[in-house]
Amino acid sequence: MFSSLYPFYMVFRVKMFLNIRNGLSVATNSSKVIRQLCTKAAAFENVTNNKQSNESSKNNVVDYRHIYPEFLPDPKPEFRNVLREKLERSDMIARRTQIQIPEFYVGSILAVTSSDKHTPGKNNRFVGICIDREGCGLRATFILRNVIEQQGVEVKFELYDPTLHKIEVLRLEKRLDDKLFYLRDALPQYSTFDPNMEPELLPGGSTVPVNNLKVKLKPKPWLERWERQNLQGVEDLGLPEKFYIRAKELEKPWEKYDLMKDYMKTIPEEEQTEIFSEVQSHLHKLEVTRKQMKRKRVFVKPSKLA
Amino acid sequence: MNQADVSKLVSQLKFRVNPRLRKFRNSGGPEERLNWLRKTVTALIKHERIELNYPRADEARMYAERLISDAIRYGDCHKTTMDVADYWIVEKQLIHKLFKVLVPRYEHYNVAYTRLIKVPRVYPGDTLPKAVLELKGNPYPSLLPDTSTNRGIIHNVLLDEAKKAYRQQKYAEIAAKIDAAEEKFSDLKISGKDEKNVSSL
């Protein structure tokens, strides 16, 4: 898959090590000191405090699940294979050293630059709102939607596709729903985004904002029966009463109490910590290099044109 | 191909979970299935040991374990957990038992909280497989035979003696081997010294 990129990858890796070495050694030293201090302090504190600190450090690892959901395997037992999952994770890390895959969510606006085999030597750049994230491991995908010349366009990209050159997040935000397929039936203004949009920067250390936008849908016919899906990000649908009665009939209020169904849909916390503590150091390293590269990028003053 | 649901965090269950849930034959559909299992889970929490058909016991066990593990994880101040406990426990006075008795009992367990034992089939009789489902640490006498105190049974005494004799024989053989090796070594040493003496002369 990455054979053509391999020489570059090696060079990049060496450089990365050189860059990091100084910074990291200081960091590891300080972290050691902190750890020692922590252990000393914990000896004096009671057991409950110790438990809390353990939990908080654990939570940090588990919080990766929102940013990197594709690192978790498919919970279906017939698809599980520990060795394949491990190899896939190492491949994903290897790909992430080549291309910067940023943090994004359903509802974020992205720009993806990719090459097309039918137009060799040229790149496509597609801007759109992410309406869905699916799949896990190397097969993770996301769908971007935009309206281009009054025509709704959706492109499904694979996150670890080697033909992708660049993934930029133009606006990092979440919406009220996990999937935004209803934008297909919404007025076009809700999925129209300027292809020349400038990236909007969030202040450092802030949480990802949630956009409370309520979308207005076009009148029926629709692609799906949206009134049955308990959507939060949709304005009042304005349907006759019988539709809501039928939706009420088909509701499954007991499903939220089906503890085993929930359990079989997720990966338990113990397994998640195992997975993320395995990849954590690599991901952290990538983050550090990304920040260093960012700092190194010199601002070039635009020359005045006559 | 799905992505794992990351909105909820759950603790891992400490026993082998079935790959899929059973669809019991009932006229009420999935809702009735849960209603039916609720009764079993409530009975388990109430009586701490129940005997029932195996498939139902196996299914109810998973739900009871999940309920207890959630109760341990989130405590009684967590609204969702309280809602779930309210749904699963039909007799409401048992909710107190879940949070005040079972949670402290199982807080530091590293194993499953319940035990599922297959009941031997009676012949001739009902052919449906039966099982006993119980909460661990219950006050009843154990169902499994206590093997720690049966050393006095004649078979075990004889076996122990036989083992002891066998072991003694082996030790004797090893000692003899070591002795032989030492003798050989000392012989070699003596002969080596003689040779040295000869060369010096």
UniProtKB/TrEMBL annotation, chain A:
Keywords annotated in UniProt:
Mitochondrion, Ribonucleoprotein, Ribosomal protein, Transit peptide
Gene3D superfamilies referenced in this protein's UniProt entry, alphabetically: 2.30.30.790
Q: Which InterPro entries match?
A: Ribosomal_bL19, Ribosomal_bL19_sf, Translation_prot_SH3-like_sf
Where does the UniProt entry say this protein principally localizes? mitochondrion
GO biological process: any one? Answer: translation
- Entry's Gene Ontology cellular component terms: mitochondrial large ribosomal subunit
Source species, domain of life: Eukaryota
Q: Which GO terms describe its molecular function?
A: structural constituent of ribosome
One matching Pfam family is Ribosomal_L19
Q: Where in the cell is it found?
A: Mitochondrion
PANTHER family in the record, alphabetically? LARGE RIBOSOMAL SUBUNIT PROTEIN BL19M, RIBOSOMAL PROTEIN L19
Family statement drawn from the similarity comment of this UniProt entry: Belongs to the bacterial ribosomal protein bL19 family.
Q: What name goes with this protein? A: Large ribosomal subunit protein bL19m
Organism the protein comes from: Brassicogethes aeneus
Q: What is the lineage of its organism?
A: Eukaryota, Metazoa, Ecdysozoa, Arthropoda, Hexapoda
Automatic annotation (TrEMBL), chain B:
Q: Which GO terms describe its biological process?
A: translation
Name under which the protein is recorded: Large ribosomal subunit protein bL17m
Listed GO MF terms: structural constituent of ribosome
Taxonomic lineage from the root: Eukaryota, Metazoa, Ecdysozoa, Arthropoda, Hexapoda
The record's section on PANTHER family has: LARGE RIBOSOMAL SUBUNIT PROTEIN BL17M, RIBOSOMAL PROTEIN L17
Cite a single Pfam family from the UniProt record.
Ribosomal_L17
Top-level taxon: Eukaryota
Family affiliation: Belongs to the bacterial ribosomal protein bL17 family.
Keyword Ribonucleoprotein among record annotations: yes
Write down the Gene3D superfamilies for this protein, in alphabetical order.
Ribosomal protein L17
| InterPro entries according to UniProt | Ribosomal_bL17, Ribosomal_bL17_sf
GO CC annotations, alphabetized: mitochondrial large ribosomal subunit
Q: Which UniProt keywords apply?
A: Ribonucleoprotein, Ribosomal protein
